[in-house]
Amino acid sequence: MRLIFTFFVSLFSCLSQACELAVQIVEYPPLAYRNVQGNWEGLNKLYVDALLNEAGCTYKFIETPFARGLQMVDSGQLDMVIDVSRTPEREAKYHFIGPQRIETILLVGRKKAIPTIVTWNDMQSLDARLVRQRGSFYGSKLEEVLLTNKRLHWRVEAIADNKTILQLVINEKADAFFLESSHWQYLKKDNSIKDKLEVHPLIINAEPVYYALSKTSVSEQLIQKLNAAFVELTKDNSLKAMEEKFFDSLGKNGGH
Fold first, then answer.
1. Does residue 14 register a pLDDT over 60?
2. Residue 252 reports pLDDT greater than 70
3. What torsion, rounded to 10 degrees, do the Cα atoms 12, 23, 30, 98 define?
């Protein structure tokens, strides 16, 4: 009888520690893309693998636009989204673990479509049609500019799909857009894109991004478990080494 009791106690303990998370993902190479077999690859997958493997969890990817993914994590339909900037508004909705890495945001425009943007004063006086990814945060400085430059504010369009954003600028429906620096490195490998676009000198934002988890669907016990896993990963700089290795391999093989 004691052996049976011990077995069920052990089984219950294992089940209580098990976890499977639904994780948002969207195509944004080289951070996330599908290989020829249709499976997800990229730096974001490596970040998810690293944390959840360390925590002893499994996961499944759910493909949604970024803004929709944030809403689904807030409501508990999804459990995690990564590469999320931390803001007071978001802290009310999500648990944050991290930071993962520093995300750098650039301004890329159609060649000669707008004056060269070197300083925030240039941005303050800009009159142009800009496009941003819906739901993304590009830093407090840009938000300040958009609050004071009302004409620019009303000419910024938020679009969910990244490919649509690119085509709007190339096809002269918009003048410039904001994007993460590694995605620009990926895009400019295509000469037909590189010949039409240029990156502006002003760095729009360079701040940490985090794993963001649902306060609705993820328990406090699991948050503690994931936090402990993240601490283990930081002890030997595993995440930083993983990121450096990833970008080094891209440089050597020319991308995916």
1. no
2. no
3. -70
Three-state SS for 40? strand
Residue 53 is predicted with a pLDDT of 97
Return the pLDDT at 251.
Answer: 72
pLDDT, the chain, mean:
92
17-102+209-253 homologous superfamily:
Periplasmic binding protein-like II (3.40.190.10)
Report pLDDT digits (tens) over 30-40.
Answer: 999 999 999 99
End-to-end Cα spacing for the chain: 57
Check: CB of residue 226 under 8 Å from CB of residue 51: yes
Tell me how far apart the alpha carbons of residues 83 and 235 are, in angstroms, rounded to a whole number.
Answer: 21
Nearest to 97 by CA among 205, 245, 239, 247: 239
pLDDT at 165: 98
Domain 103-207 CATH (choose: 3.40.50.2300, 1.10.760.10, 3.40.50.360, 3.40.190.10): 3.40.190.10
Predicted TM-score (pTM) of the model is 0.90
pLDDT band at 9, cuts 50/70/90? very low
Residue at token pair 């941005």: 123
How many H helices and E strands in the chain? 12, 10
d(CA 186, CA 255): 7
Q: How far is CA 64 from CA 24, 32, 60, 77, 227, in A?
A: 6, 12, 13, 12, 25
DSSP class per residue in 215-244: TTTS-HHHHHHHHHHHHHHHHTTHHHHHHH
Express the helix, strand and coil content of the chain in percent, nearest 5 each.
45, 30, 30
